[in-house]
Structures are given as C-alpha cells and as structure tokens.
Model the fold of this input.
Amino acid sequence: LRRQAGATWTAEALVFSTNFRQPFDPAAFQAVLPKNSIHRMAPGEPIHALMEQWKAAAQRTLPERAWGERRWFAAAAHALHAAGARVDLRRRWLGRGYLVVNVMRNA
Done:
C-alpha cells in the first residue's frame, strides 16, 4: 500500500514470498492472497488471470526445476513478465523468493 500526502491509500504491488522450503507451486499462493483478492478468484477477474498466467509460466519453465526451485521460481517470473504481467525482475528479489507484481493502473 502507498499513501501520498493528502490522498487515500492505494495498492501499489502484490508481493508473493517463498522460502523455498516447500516445492514451488503458484497454486499454493492462492490460499494466502489478501481477502479482497480471494473473493475475486473467478474467471474474468484480473487476479484470476494473473494466477492462471503464473501457473502457465511455471509449466512452460518446468525444465528449469532441474537446477533447483529458486532457479525455476525466477524463470517462471521472467516467463510471467514476458506474458504481459508487470513483474519486477530484480535478481536480488527473485533470488530471495519475492515475486513483486505492480498493480497500479498507471504504472
């Protein structure tokens, strides 16, 4: 969330995080979405489209899993970005298990 002086709070990004102790699976992140996003997990909603794109990106990059979950997570993030999602591709964040998706309309 972000709040500029004299303005209301607005969502800036959606951040997903993993510690790589469990196998990487984008579907596992659906259960821990913010409540307002969970209620929008229906076809036609942007959050549903994002999760479906992420699952598809993970499937396309499955061969990267041979080099570890961390590498596969980063490869899926790059594929998700290539599919049109506004993913922050900073290596440091991806390497630590953070997927940051910009949700601001004008960004």
